């Protein structure tokens, strides 16, 4: 079954379906997950499609099994993915931190739903954005991407796999129920136009190989598969370059390298989209489903002569500090609509550092912002 | 009475932890605990009756440190 | 250094991390002999859990994955499925397998996936200081059961059988020859092979449960209290209390998960349905 063709194709899919298309094109051939609304369509589509491509789709007994299976599959040599929602995401946290420590490429999709607890299974929310960054124990890097529509869910899933392979770190995609379940058309470009990145393979002789010896240029160690003859030492404890348990100084060195590996490449990783910022007095910065209402609200504001621009955060972590800081230094107000009590707005405030007023526009309880919900504070604030 | 003659029983003194299992495992009295200490400071067993060894290998197979090897026979 | 250790083990892991007299090293040796005599080292990879038992996985000179607590089996399942030629050996302990890892154990057995699961049963949580485990005998006083354990010891062989494992055995470190023979069969068995090994733990269960830190005494206790089916049948129910059943309990060829997965994959690809876009 052809996944991508020489000419582009247009498909009408739910966001969840677009995610699967992106994953399969990116080379994902292993899925292990547990059904949870509103992500289950991803598992179901993977179950139908992966065997046709020589891939394996497993429904595991729980999310703990799923994230750990991803680590096994990745060290087995395959690109691996899972999809879940809030409650399952919580269960995966130990495994995500483990994957970050072991530098195991994998992609975890969280189609966020109302929380806390079992929350609202069929309603959108963005309450897990900080959990994605800080949910596991200890210090580790995180890359998180946030699609706001089906096309972005397709594009950013491919990007997630590429970043995961390039930086040898788990990447989380923070979608929400609205993005996951809205059915719209997506454009799948011709195969040759899509960049696919694979993990670096070792070039040293097998008897000289050290599992966690990084290349000095990008701080990323090359990664073979198990049973290729490299006798890898992969342990969840903090480890030396050889892979064995580390002492204090070596542990600190590892943690610092893991952080630097991602933070030093922040310009490459962070990805925002914006419009009408150049002459703006006010900016609306958002991500995910509310972004679409935000753009509509900004258009309405412009039509009424207000100089408002918008910025869409397609990357949440590492936080696009430079891009947001530039906006903060230019405008008088930044509004941050999000489907939670106010989370990414804290990051915006942090990097704005008082340069402008930062106004949260929270909405929670399982309903997404309407354009009016965002236009109202724009109108009330703009002077 | 020995049924096969082994040429040696190696005790790897730098990894032996002096647990004494080999002395007990051997039903033919080949070993005794000595007063010598190995590299890690543990008391070592020593071979006192090699001629009694039947190459049953229970000493070698019971050793928790892979520190005994029965050679030959 | 021992010839076998030089041949197939990591020399820098000697002396091994285990306490003096601990059965873990014994089991390591026997697994090593099995791997060597079967000639499979290039296909072997190991997954170790958290606990003393997990470190067995690190001794062999093969690719090795030290999982987080309780999660060896999902990792092992994925390693097996992504390259069926792999011989995946799982080293887990009573806490790692029967407590936190219980659900994964149930489902790995249920899949009857081709793995060798060596569960090293020292009847206690050794690494963390001797806390009570599901496999600790009834009434035992440990740091977390100071007034005596309320439940009897969990029999994980019965769980394995009930869940669907197709090879189930229990031996001890006091039965090295039988254990070696069983390990060789288990590794080559095409299905989930569960081998439980009762082992002496001089520092923790030795002292807390059996009242002795002497490995020779503990091995004697193991020998006297682990009986085969024939030996058990000669005892009265009162005499059997506290005794452990050892032996090869089950060895059957049944549908195996990896083979079936790849078989389905081939069938789906070959069938006419493959050309139909089944997307919504």
Task: Give an account of the 3D structure.
The complex is a heterotrimer of chains A (about 375), B (about 70) and C (about 280). Chain A is α/β, with parallel strands linked by helices and about 375 residues long. Chain A folds into two domains: about 10-195, 3-Layer(aba) Sandwich (Rossmann fold); about 270-380, Rossmann fold, CATH 3.40.50.920. Chain A is built from 14 helices and 16 strands. With about 70 residues, chain B is an alpha+beta fold. Chain B has one domain: 2-Layer Sandwich (Alpha-Beta Plaits). Chain B is about 15% helix and about 25% strand. Chain B is built from two helices and four strands; from the N terminus they run βαββαβ. Chain B has a two-stranded antiparallel ribbon with strand order 1-4. In chain B, strands 2-3 form a two-stranded antiparallel ribbon. Chain B is globular, with a radius of gyration of 11 Å. In chain B, about 40% of the residues are buried. In chain C, β5 (about 165-170), α8 (about 175-190) and β6 form a beta-alpha-beta unit. Chain C has one domain (about 5-255): 3-Layer(aba) Sandwich (Rossmann fold). The longest helix of chain C has 16 residues, at about 25-40. Chain C has 13 helices and nine strands. In chain C, α6 crosses α7 (about 155-165). With about 280 residues, chain C is α/β, with parallel strands linked by helices. In chain C, the strands form two sheets. In chain C, strands 2-1-3-4-6-5-9 form a seven-stranded mixed β-sheet, sandwiched between helices. A two-stranded parallel sheet of chain C has the order 7-8. Chain C starts with a helix and ends in a 10-residue tail after the last helix. Chain C has helices spanning about 5-10, 25-40, 55-60, 70-80, 95-100, 100-110, 155-165, 175-190, 205-210, 215-225, 230-235, 235-240, 255-270; strands spanning about 45-50, 65, 85-95, 115-120, 165-170, 190-200, 225, 245, 245-250. Classes of the chains: A alpha/beta (about 375), B alpha+beta (about 70), C alpha/beta (about 280). Chains in contact: A-C, B-C.
């Amino acid at each position: 079954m052809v996944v991508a063709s020489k000419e582009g194709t247009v498909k009408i899919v739910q966001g969840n379906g677009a995610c699967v298309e992106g994953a399969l094109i990116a080379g994902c051939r292993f899925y292990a997950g547990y059904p949870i609304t509103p992500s289950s369509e991803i598992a179901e589509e993977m179950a139908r499609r992966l065997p046709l491509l020589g891939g394996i789709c497993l429904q595991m007994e729980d999310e703990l099994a799923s994230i750990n299976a991803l680590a096994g599959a990745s060290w087995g040599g395959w690109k691996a993915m899972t999809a879940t929602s809030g409650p399952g995401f919580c269960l995966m946290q130990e495994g995500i931190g483990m994957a970050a420590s072991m530098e195991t490429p994998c992609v975890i999709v969280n189609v966020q739903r109302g929380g806390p607890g079992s929350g609202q299974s069929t309603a959108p929310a963005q309450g897990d954005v900080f959990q994605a960054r800080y949910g596991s124990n200890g210090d580790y890097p995180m890359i998180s991407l946030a699609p706001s529509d089906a096309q972005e869910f397709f594009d950013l899933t491919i990007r997630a796999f590429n970043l995961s392979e390039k930086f040898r770190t788990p990447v989380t995609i923070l979608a929400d129920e609205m993005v996951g379940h809205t059915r719209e058309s997506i454009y799948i470009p011709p195969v040759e136009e899509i960049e696919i990145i694979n993990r670096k393979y070792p070039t040293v002789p097998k008897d000289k190989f050290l599992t966690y010896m990084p290349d000095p240029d990008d701080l990323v160690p090359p990664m073979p598969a198990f049973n290729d003859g490299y006798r890898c030492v992969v342990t969840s404890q903090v480890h030396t370059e050889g892979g064995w348990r580390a002492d204090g100084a070596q542990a600190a060195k590892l943690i610092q390298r893991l952080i630097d590996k991602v933070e030093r490449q922040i310009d490459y990783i962070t990805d925002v989209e914006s419009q009408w910022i150049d002459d703006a007095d006010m900016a609306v910065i958002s991500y995910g489903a509310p972004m679409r209402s935000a753009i509509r609200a900004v258009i309405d504001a412009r039509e009424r002569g207000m100089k408002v621009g918008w910025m869409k955060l397609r990357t949440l972590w590492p936080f696009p500090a430079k891009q947001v800081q530039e906006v903060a230094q230019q405008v008088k107000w930044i509004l941050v609509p999000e489907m939670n009590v106010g989370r990414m707005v804290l990051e915006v405030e942090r990097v704005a550092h008082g340069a402008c007023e930062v106004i949260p526009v929270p909405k929670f309880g399982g309903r997404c912002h309407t354009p009016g919900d965002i236009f109202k504070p724009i109108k009330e604030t703009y002077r | 009475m020995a049924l096969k003659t082994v040429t040696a029983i190696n005790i790897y003194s730098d990894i032996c932890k002096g647990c004494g299992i080999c002395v007990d495992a051997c039903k033919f009295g080949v070993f005794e605990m000595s007063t010598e200490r190995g590299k890690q400071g543990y008391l070592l067993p020593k071979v006192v009756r090699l001629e009694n060894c039947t190459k049953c290998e229970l000493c070698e197979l019971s050793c928790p440190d892979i520190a005994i090897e029965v050679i030959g026979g | 250094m021992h010839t076998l250790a030089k041949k197939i083990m990591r020399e820098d892991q000697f002396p091994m991390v285990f306490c003096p007299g601990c059965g873990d090293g014994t089991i390591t040796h026997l697994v090593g002999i099995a791997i060597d005599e079967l000639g499979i080292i290039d296909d072997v990879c190991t997954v170790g859990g958290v606990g003393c038992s997990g470190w067995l996985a690190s001794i062999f000179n093969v690719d090795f994955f030290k999982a987080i607590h309780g999660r060896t089996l999902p990792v092992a399942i994925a390693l097996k499925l992504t390259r069926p030629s792999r011989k995946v050996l799982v080293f887990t302990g009573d806490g790692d397998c029967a407590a936190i890892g219980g659900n994964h154990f149930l489902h790995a057995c249920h899949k009857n996936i081709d793995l060798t699961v060596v569960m090293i049963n020292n009847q206690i949580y050794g690494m963390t200081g001797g806390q009570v485990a599901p496999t600790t005998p009834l009434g035992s006083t440990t740091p977390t059961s100071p007034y005596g354990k309320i439940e009897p010891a969990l029999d994980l062989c019965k769980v394995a059988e009930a869940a669907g494992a197709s090879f189930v055995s229990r031996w001890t470190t006091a039965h090295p020859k039988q254990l070696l023979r069983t390990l060789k069969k288990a590794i080559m068995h095409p299905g989930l092979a569960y081998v439980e090994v009762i082992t002496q733990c001089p520092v923790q269960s030795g002292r807390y449960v059996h009242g002795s830190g002497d490995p020779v005494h503990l091995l004697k206790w193991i020998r006297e209290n682990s009986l085969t089916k024939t030996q058990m049948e000669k005892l009265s129910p009162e005499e059997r209390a506290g005794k452990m059943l050892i032996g090869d309990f089950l060895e059957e060829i049944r549908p195996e998960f990896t083979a079936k997965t790849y078989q389905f994959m081939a069938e789906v690809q070959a069938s006419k349905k493959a050309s139909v876009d089944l997307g919504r």
